[in-house]
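Predict structure. Chain length: 856.
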Amino acid sequence: MPSNPDAAQDLNVDLTNCDREPIQFLGQVQDFGCLICVSSDWMIAHASTNCDVVLGLDAEELIGQKFVDYFPDEVVHKLRARMQILMQGDSVARIYEIDLFNDGRRFDVAVHQAGRLLTLEFEPRPTDAKPSSADAATVQALIARLKRRQGDLMGFAQDGARSMAALCGMDRVMVYRFEDDDSGTVIGEVCAPGQEPYLGLRYPASDIPKQARALYERNRIRIIQNVDGKTHPIVPAKGPEGDPPDLSMAATRAVSPIHLEYLRNMGVTSSMSVSILRRGKLWGLFACHHTQPLELNHSTRAAVELFGQLFSYELAQMETDREFAEAERARGLHDRLMTQMSGGQTLNAVFSSCEDELKEVIPFDGMVIYSNGVFEARGSTPTEEEFLGLVRFLNTAQTSEILTIDRLEERYPGADSFADRAAGLMAIPISRTPRDYLVLFRREIAQAVTWAGNPEKPVELGPNGIRLTPRKSFDAWKQIVRGKSAPWTSAERRAADALRVTLLEVVVKLTDEANSTRKRAQEQQELLIAELNHRVRNILNLIQGLLSQGRGSAQTLEEYSEVLDRRVHSLARAHDQLTRKDWSWVPLTGLIRTEIDAFLGQNAKRVAISGDTVDLSPTAFTTMALVVHELVTNSAKYGALSDSTGRVDIGIDLGADGSASVTWRESGGPPVQAPTRKGFGTTIIERSVPYELKGDANVTYKVGGVEATFVLPSSHVARATEQDAESTARAPDQIDDVRLAGSVLLVEDNMIIAMDAQDMLMEMGADHVTVCSQVRDALAAIERADYKLAVLDVNLGEELSLPVALRCAENGVPVLLATGYGASPEVLDQFPAAPVCAKPYTAEQLKLAIAKALSI
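Prediction complete.
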């Protein structure tokens, strides 16, 4: 690896124990400084044997003596004051160029706490040392240059290597990134001319053991000034408790001979490693090499350490921004999935439309949706039979966890049958019972990884025993990875987990809605069956009454036919209002008139409506249609409207709070008795408004006639517009004077409706009605004849009648549009302004629309 930071450990610890916690490192120090450990009462406990060279003090004589006996009082005061800034953890306090003995010799001193001891390291300052050009201002300027690379990791790493080289002056500086498998890759490099570049090389995880990586999270900078320099032991090697001093945070700590041999084989004489941390975890390293011995004073090292910290901060910011962008894409996918699934679409339909968007968040080569035992696949995936075997394997995993595998053959033996289509998978559970999955597959990717040696090279016997012998050659070794897909990144796993929560939320919602819908449908079915039985009996009785009443009042067969036809059409209008689905707000007066006309015909004048004119919401309209229907039916059968003398007064009062009170008063009819049992009709009258609208209903059976009061809440009532009031006030008798003359063009693709409409138009006085079912026939007919009116069905199956409407508008022919309930406003907006008659229409509706078209 580029700078293998203490790959080996204490010489008494072999590789079989390399995964334990950071160990006590070598009990020696390098030649560029000496070290003294003191207790809290400043009693010297340990010292390096080179203290006599560096400080002029004998190490063995120092042990057990007071620190203050060898150093001037003002120096001890400065050291104590500086140690006050030491915080908990692995912080280091430094003093630069202190005259330690008041004799002109200057030292850089570093102090840190290691257990119960304070460790002081002394490095002499050469008298001819040049002042360091690396300071905080320089570091800030270098970081400012790095900010320009935000969003470009490789450019950011390359500029970081250049900046670090400018600070430390070493021949080679590399930015080394740890991968998910703990191997490392050189992603940025600056090296002196003539040196072999390492940029892009991959180094196995074993090059930096776990305990060394853990140490790098604590100690951010590590220096070796000379691989051939002397090392000096610590005396005594162990304290009274039998433990050696902890030198993990010591800058002067010596290095394993194995690592020194490693560096010599690379032609490196001095090295420095600086940690790159993200969220307190080791992300990578600055690995710095030099071909000559190099002394880095404390000021330069402080600038290097500061640069490493700020580089880590900027890197974390850049990766956080990238994660936010990924999270935003995942959130957008979540919102789109929720919108589509909440709209009732199935999982298969939704993922068919969102497949490309999902690939942007989590790249994949194939996708399988396995829900409720139904298998659906897209892209490169196993077959259904192969997948069913895989599902049994997936069911052994944790229920609520995302499962990611990039070497499926190693985990699931049956994967060899579809290895050519899928080498890795991400399984996202989308339910608990049954176990349903969204599974994303990735194909095999033959990765040509350039390793700096064979990562599978076994441990060999070296000069220091059972050790990983440093590589004698750094020739690139190519490893072709087979049977492996591209790895699933942590960001992709986070996006998948968010997707899993979304899918579970939707699946639970859809399940609850399905159960609720099923229960509601069953209840509605029972209600509709009861209502149907009741209404069939009413309709049969009504038809019998229409036939008998019409026969008694008509003088001729033609008159009888006309009266009967009019009453049947009136009844049809009432039922049409009950079954229509896409209502807007509807006038209450119109509802009442429609029901009265259906039952009473010419006797409708015996019902008087007074008070305010209000509109009802679609829900209230449906409810009141049932109520009014039952009131009129019962009155026609048993009450005031069952003979020739009775009458009904209906009052509508819009209250100050927005609610509406509707009163029904019968008088002048036969005596009334309260029903001995409550049938379906009575239940509708008394309970529909309180149950459906949360309003009130009060029904009283007085001898003189039935009286009822209904209070409709404000949420279902609105004051009618003037236009509504005028349209409701217009009675059928007022459009009897609509008469046609000349030829009429009728465009209708339904033969039965066309025949009925042709008869209605002829009865209104049309001389001739031309019937066409296609646009081309209608356009040809316009060229052949002049028409006084055109009645156009908007939707003619596979085409619209728009060209005919436009041609009629050019020729000045009045147009009436006929449309079913499915015609959207967007479609009608394309047509010229014209009256619209909703299908199926009656003669009265047609007359009213024609009157508007002809402005009668």
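Summary: The CA atoms of residues 422 and 443 lie 4 Å apart.
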